[in-house]
Each structure stands twice: as C-alpha cells, then as structure tokens.
Amino acid sequence: MTTVSSSDEAKFQTIGRLAAYLQDGDLGGATGLLDSSVA
C-alpha cells in the first residue's frame, strides 16, 4: 500500500478536473483551472 501526500492528492484532483474540461472542450475552464493551480 502506498501513501499519497495531500499535495499529490490535490495534484491528481486538478489533473482529473483538467481532463474533464478538455473532454468537454471547455478550454476556458481548463485555462482558468491551470491559472488558479499555478498561482
């Protein structure tokens, strides 16, 4: 069993949400998500 740190967990959630935006073709949502995660 591997342990995942909270920061890694958040990173995975962000990637999952980003993938969902891209699948929907929502580039505005995707770039907004990237901007908020980088800031």
Structural notes for this entry:
About 80% of the residues lie in helices and about 0% in strands. It has about 40 residues and is mainly α. It has one domain (about 10-39). Helix 1 packs antiparallel against helix 2 (about 25-39). The longest helix has 19 residues, at about 5-25. It starts with 5 loop residues before the first helix and ends with a helix.
| Strands, count | 0
Amino-to-carboxy terminus distance: 32 Å
- Tell me the major beta sheet: none
Classify the helix fraction into a percent range: over 70%
Tally of distinct domains: 1
| Rg from Cα | 12 Å
Would you summarize the structure shown here?
The chain has 39 residues and is mostly helical.
What key attributes describe this structure?
elongated, 39 residues, mainly alpha
SSE arrangement:
Elements: H1 6-24, H2 27-38
